[in-house]
Amino acid sequence: NENVSRKLHFWDAVWDLQLAQCPCDVHFCDWLEKEKIENAAIFHFGTGSHHVIGIRTAENGSNNCVLGITASPGEYDAFVKLAIDRPDVEKSYKVFFGDIYQLEQRLLPQFDVVTLFHLCEFRNERNDLYGALTDLEVTTMLTEQTRPGGYIVFYTKSFAFDAAERVIAVWEKEQKVEKVGMYETLLVYRKTA
Prior knowledge:
- By secondary structure, this protein is an alpha/beta fold.
- The protein has helices at 2-5, 24-34, 52-59, 73-85, 87-90, 125-128, 135-144, 161-174; strands at residues 41-45, 65-70, 93-97, 111-115, 146-155, 177-183, 186-191.
- It has a seven-stranded mixed sheet with strand order 3-2-1-4-5-7-6.
- The relative contact order is 0.17.
- The mean pLDDT is 92.
């Protein structure tokens, strides 16, 4: 059925916090605190059902705010429960459900920090059926939405990082960014202009 094949590509699972397998969200929170990043607007790709970035930034006194995206209905449901149970967290942490490859730039604010931890993990031919963006197009768009001096952060232990590295190699030649370096499992870039 053609209608079925054109349905949104979503992730029919949830990701609980599994530090041995995927410590990127905790490493990111550690990095934010080490760098004393405060009062920042953060875009986070792939929230997990643990929502650790939103919770920790709400609790640590940094006054950071986080906009997260998840393609998992279960992770989104976990956010709704968190928002109801913890309005103190929900005040500075918002999550929306959707395919990141369907982002509409006109709806996005400017960010100080963008995480692209799951770049190249999710996109496949199903996204092509409805004309979704590519990984490079998403990375470019989110870079354009990053303020000069802001950060774009990648996760080097992703199962798809070999593919992400190829995207990053093209992206860093096309964009005004510079490599800051590594922090734990994270590769950090800064937008220069």
